[in-house]
Design a protein that fits this description.
13 strands; 12 helices; Rossmann fold; alpha/beta; about 400 residues
Length: about 400
Amino acid sequence: MKAFAPILPGAKTLSRFTHLSCSGCGAEYESDRLQTVCTREGCGQPLLAVYDFRKPLPKRKLRRRVSSMWRYRELLPVGDDAHILSLGEGMTPLLPSMRLAALAGMQQLYIKDESANPTASFKARGLSMAVSKARELGVQACVIPTAGNAGGALSAYCARGGLEAHVFMPADTPEMFKLECRQFGASLQLVDGLISDCGRIIQQHPQRHNWFDVSTLKEPYRLEGKKTMGYEIAEQLGWEVPDVIIYPTGGGTGLIGIWKALEEMQQLGWVGSKRPRMVAVQAEGCQPIVQAFEQGKNEAEFFPHAATIASGLRVPFAYGHRLILKVLRESNGTAVAVSDAEILEAVQEIAQCEGLFVAPEGAATWAACKRLLKAGWLEESEKVVLLNTGSGYKYAGLQPTSGKQ
């Protein structure tokens, strides 16, 4: 395999990754073998990467490092820099959004703009990490069921590393997502149904044993890429933690990852014990996490007839549902469902106030923020971060609710 330029020159084994631990039963798994989920009978829960925190890692070491997610190299699982497949993902802007905040009387509102990533979404983080680690462990072909952005990101990073990419996507996904996969050379199969149907078809496919499945939380490393959003938010706020983080939740990997990052940063001494209240936002037409949270359950059920204009929120069942609900409760957070009409209005408000054309998934966080303010759950003085997970430019059919003439 061709070697890539090191992210941190002169260092081959900076990673402090030691092993994997089951998020359910605590069983441990080796770090140098290809792993999926816990294989103990009756478990099957996601595996989480564990690191050695005994040796100090001063924050000052970050000052001269690359402006990407790989600046946190010691806390990422790829062993050898030669296997890192990077397109410059991470270190996206955390934008103060004062004009938007003024609409609701808020004082401290920020948008973490993940559309600045390669392939224009936060999926670049997770797939950069997952494909890099898969490549390091000898994988030659990857497969993914996707609602849109993850398929494009997998296709890009497989192209970067010379791996095969196989993408299964709902047929009614906006055209830009399909074009993206094809341009990167992926094999794209369109499915009449939802992302859950795509996953089912992959499991029945005759070639499935030749592909490594990088479905959300069915391998351990996409989470490790997504967690870097948490590291960045803290660093960009001067190592302070916001009061509230509002996150659009389909598969929920980023929400789980941000929470994991906060725990890791506390072990490093980079932040204290304060934690933000985490908010999971879903669409009214697909709200399995919201329903489970409101009913006081620790597990979510499959949501029938899922429908929403926000493709990334059209996930009727999240594999990491237990972890999502655990984070919401540990953080004293909440879950909110918003309508498609509210999402469209929020897309336009963010565009006209802040000059950002956000994805409908990202806009859903602003719609939820306004609801939580009105309900009194949010205080106007609190420091709030909204996650915009992608670009509105991929949604060519998105229609504004109104417009200035």
